[in-house]
Amino acid sequence: MSSVLWKLLFLVAATKTILACEPVNQLLSKICQSDVVFRGRPMSGASGISQDEEGRESHHGRVTFELIGPFYRNMAEEAHLVATTLDVHRTYTAMDNCDPAFLPWGSDTYLVLASYDHVLTVPACGHVIPFECIPQDLVLTC
Question: Among its keywords, does the record have Signal (predicted)?
Fold first, then answer.
């Protein structure tokens, strides 16, 4: 394959990577509105599909994350956890305007922005973020 073609393929891949990361102001808003924020590495998961009476599909998933670094509750302070893994649940329907995949890309680690009401849940879109999309100089102003 010619070097020009390789460069073109790299440029397309790099452009897709850049476009998949959301603007910092949207990221900050999501972080500040989340009950729980942590960095995690996916360890295992399970998923299933169900249909309602009208034939609409819902994709249900659960991923177990290995906790990496601090765990924040309500962004007020770092919480102290005994657990080293956390289960996170997600439901996706055709009405959601995003990719049905629970984990975007093929990242090793993710920033998880979850709600907590007896279990950790994330909305269908944009709350499990590849850690490569998090600016290293991100300053929280919640």
Answer: yes
User: The whole model's pTM is what?
Assistant: 0.77
Contact 90, 100 (CB under 8 A): no
Hey, what domains does the chain have and what are their CATH numbers? 23-133 (2.40.50.120)
Distance CA 37, CA 55 (A): 35
For the CA atoms of the chain, what is the radius of gyration?
Answer: 17
Burial of 8 (0-12, 13-18, 19+ CB in 10 A): exposed
Q: What is the mean pLDDT of each run of 10 residues along the chain (142 residues)?
A: 37 42 88 90 94 90 91 64 86 89 86 90 93 85 74
Burial of residue 30, with CB atoms counted within 10 A of its CB: 0-12 exposed, 13-18 middle, 19 or more buried: middle
